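$ ./design --mode recover --in tokens.txt
reading tokens...
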């Protein structure tokens, strides 16, 4: 940048001969235009320009490119001018006339310093990138190790350590809340299996959601991570049969990850934030990694539940029933929902088996369990409880609802006919009946032992009152 055409031409020819790309300006205004158009590495600037001071141009160069270098040239150099130039960070100050080799030497040194600055900036950026990647990898390894340790014993994951796994997810993603939804089979519903960080009203709103709507529905259909940075436009989900989304106004941002194994969707892991924030690639990668390992843990739980099935009736066994009853009572207490327990026994089962043989008894149990399974929802739990006894847990079902289910079951069994093999069909020969005892939470039962004892007392009254009937405890 030089206002004297002859000096400007001299500088241009000299530097172009060395292989540099040279752009020329004769005023501060022209220099400002060039700085907006190109990235300048070195500016050789006359201290005095027609429309301003060269120092102002140097400042513009630094603003456009902080790594750029500047050389001030002048024919009126004084100590004050030199000091002011150096204070502005110029590489050097040269007095005219300038020897050819002197100018080239200073330009080479300035450009070398510029190159070193650029390399240092690039190196620093790479180091920061590698540091970020290393931190992300360490977070991932730590989270996976902790989840794997919690899920290493399947029973531990089912007996409460599932919540500890959610704590790991919450800490790793720095989330305000983490939710674990399980898919309730063909009902098309997600059940809130566990969570960390929700308020009571939020937990009630999200307890049961449609599997095809909202962010949960999008995660389920796409089978990949979905983020919502505005839960008003993309809410978490919708309660079944509702046109309005679940009300969670304080959860501003959500990130959902599908939990799947062998092509089967098991549920959704969801992280939520109470303040607006962007969801970056790091959060997505961490969520995907933790989701994969939680999917394996959930699959292990499902496999262990398969082992808990009674081979004869295809119902759950007694030990599995005991665990699930405790879980449902705990969930009912937290959500304020009722839960009902039915204990049923085949009337005169031992006499039937004794007169017609054990294989006939097996056929009776299979027929009775078949009637039972046709009546139950996906969320209900049916188990073989004793020799001829079966137990049914009905979540979110009060006394009247449980009575209707029990009565339908009793009638279905009564209408069933199981003929002994090798005998002619006789209307009464294959007649089977059951007695049913009911108890409900939250009243009167308060613990698994209490509700089972009360249902058993009701069952004894049903059998003692003539069999083939339904009796509710306390009535």
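writing sequence...
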């Amino acid at each position: 940048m030089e206002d004297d055409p002859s000096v400007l031409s001299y500088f241009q020819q000299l530097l172009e001969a060395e292989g540099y790309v040279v752009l020329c300006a004769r005023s501060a205004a022209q220099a400002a235009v060039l700085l907006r158009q190109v990235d300048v590495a070195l500016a050789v600037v006359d201290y005095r320009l027609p429309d301003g001071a060269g120092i102002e141009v140097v400042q513009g160069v630094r603003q456009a490119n902080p790594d750029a270098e500047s050389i001030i040239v002048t024919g009126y150099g004084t100590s004050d001018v030199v000091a002011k130039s150096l204070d502005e960070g110029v590489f050097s100050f040269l007095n005219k006339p300038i020897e050819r080799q002197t100018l080239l030497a200073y330009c080479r040194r300035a450009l070398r310093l510029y190159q070193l600055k650029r390399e240092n900036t690039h190196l620093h950026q790479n180091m920061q990138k590698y540091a970020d990647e290393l931190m992300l990898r360490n977070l991932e390894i730590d989270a996976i190790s902790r989840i794997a340790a919690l899920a290493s014993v399947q029973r531990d994951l089912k007996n409460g350590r599932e919540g500890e796994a959610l704590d790991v997810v919450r800490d790793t993603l720095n989330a305000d809340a983490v939710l674990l939804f399980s898919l309730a089979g063909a009902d098309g519903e997600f059940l809130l299996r566990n969570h960390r960080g929700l308020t009571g009203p939020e937990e009630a709103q999200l307890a049961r959601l449609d599997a095809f709507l909202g962010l949960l529905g999008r995660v389920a259909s796409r089978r990949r991570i979905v983020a919502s940075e505005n839960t008003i436009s993309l809410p978490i989900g919708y309660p079944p049969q509702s046109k309005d989304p679940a009300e969670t106004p304080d959860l501003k941002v959500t990130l959902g990850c599908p939990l799947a194994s062998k092509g089967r969707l098991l549920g959704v892991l969801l992280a939520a934030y109470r303040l607006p924030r962007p969801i970056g690639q790091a959060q997505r990668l961490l969520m995907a990694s933790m989701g994969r390992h939680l999917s394996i843990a959930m699959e292990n739980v499902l496999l262990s539940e398969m082992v808990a099935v009674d081979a004869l009736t295809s119902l759950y066994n007694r030990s599995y029933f005991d665990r699930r009853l405790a879980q449902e009572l705990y969930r009912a207490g937290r959500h304020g929902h009722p839960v009902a327990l039915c204990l049923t026994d085949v009337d005169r089962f031992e006499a039937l088996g004794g007169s017609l043989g054990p294989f006939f008894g097996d056929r009776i149990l299979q027929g009775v369990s078949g009637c039972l399974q046709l009546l139950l929802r996906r969320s209900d739990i049916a188990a073989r409880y004793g020799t001829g006894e079966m137990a049914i847990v009905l979540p979110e079902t009060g006394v009247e609802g449980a009575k209707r289910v029990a009565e339908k079951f009793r009638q279905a069994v009564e209408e069933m006919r199981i003929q002994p093999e090798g005998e002619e069909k006789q209307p009464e020969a294959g007649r089977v009946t059951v007695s049913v005892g009911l108890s409900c939470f939250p009243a009167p039962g308060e613990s698994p032992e209490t509700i089972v004892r009360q249902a058993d007392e009701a069952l004894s009254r049903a059998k003692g009152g003539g069999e083939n009937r339904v009796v509710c405890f306390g009535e």
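exit 0
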